[in-house]
Specification:
mainly beta, YmcC-like fold, 3 helices, 14 strands, globular
Length: 258
């Protein structure tokens, strides 16, 4: 089985497009989102993404941290990804990634130099270190996602974007599907727009199966569900809980339940 995290990353990013000049309001320090990953109906792992702030060289930056752990020994998942982002520009400064899923491993550190239009990519396993040409506005998957939380979904199909993934630049486009009601354990039925990605990312099953994912219509648009048909079954990733500051649909619903 190829990495479920690759599917999750695709779902996190395929509904966004860059259009604003200041993105500070797109990042909510203290936000926590939790997902459950299942294969053929069997729970495999849980994923938690947190947002906080840190100060580096007098600059206030955003740290997005995503951690995934297995529920059992059926399929080992032990992942950690940390992205440091400038909240004003929504551009990534560093990506530190460690993936352990089944017998697949990745360990990368990428540092972005947008003024020089280059990123330095370090593969800790192969010891490969190289410079990758980028554009001045090149984003990674997480910064791309968070920067466009308030963007109209219909703009998604307008222009493909280039994203930095695993040391390379990739084109990403999407097609929109019909609205559906996705049933979530903590929120009931949530109106969501179906999306199918068009991309060339490695390990995304695009040549071997079909991915469909859904994004909520509510502001602070959240990825509600992903379903990926793979050669050995169906992988499902579903939103379980959103917590932290705020007074929107997600936080109010969670507070009411508690």
């Amino acid at each position: 089985m190829k990495t479920w995290l690759s599917i999750f990353f695709m779902g996190l990013t395929a509904w966004t497009t860059l259009a604003e000049s200041d993105y500070s309001t797109c990042f909510i320090p203290g936000e926590v989102s939790e997902y459950k990953i299942s294969w053929a109906g069997i729970p495999l792992a849980r994923s938690t993404t947190t947002t906080d702030t840190l100060i580096e060289n007098g600059r206030e930056l955003i740290r997005i941290r995503m951690e995934a752990k297995s529920y059992s020994r059926i399929y080992k998942v032990d992942d950690l990804t940390e992205v440091i982002i400038d909240p004003k520009t929504a551009l990534p400064l560093r990506i530190d990634l460690s993936i352990n899923e089944g017998n697949r491993q990745k360990s990368h550190l990428t540092t972005f130099y947008h003024d020089k239009k280059v990123a330095v990519f370090q593969d800790r396993i192969s010891k490969d270190i190289r410079e990758v040409p980028i554009e001045s506005d090149t984003q990674d998957l997480f910064s791309f996602l968070f920067s466009m939380r308030n963007q109209e979904l219909k703009t998604l199909t307008a222009t493909p974007r280039k994203l930095f993934v695993d040391g390379k630049l990739y084109d990403l486009g999407i097609t929109l599907q019909k609205e559906s009601a996705i049933k979530l354990p903590a929120y009931g039925k949530v109106s969501s727009i179906g999306i199918i990605p068009i991309a060339e990312f490695d390990g995304l099953f695009l040549r071997q199966g079909k991915i469909t994912f859904w994004v909520s219509k509510q502001n602070r648009r959240m990825l509600t569900c992903i379903k990926a048909k793979v050669p050995v079954g169906m992988v499902t990733i579903k939103l379980q809980k959103v917590s932290g500051p705020g007074d929107d649909f997600w936080v109010k619903k969670q507070v009411d339940r508690e």
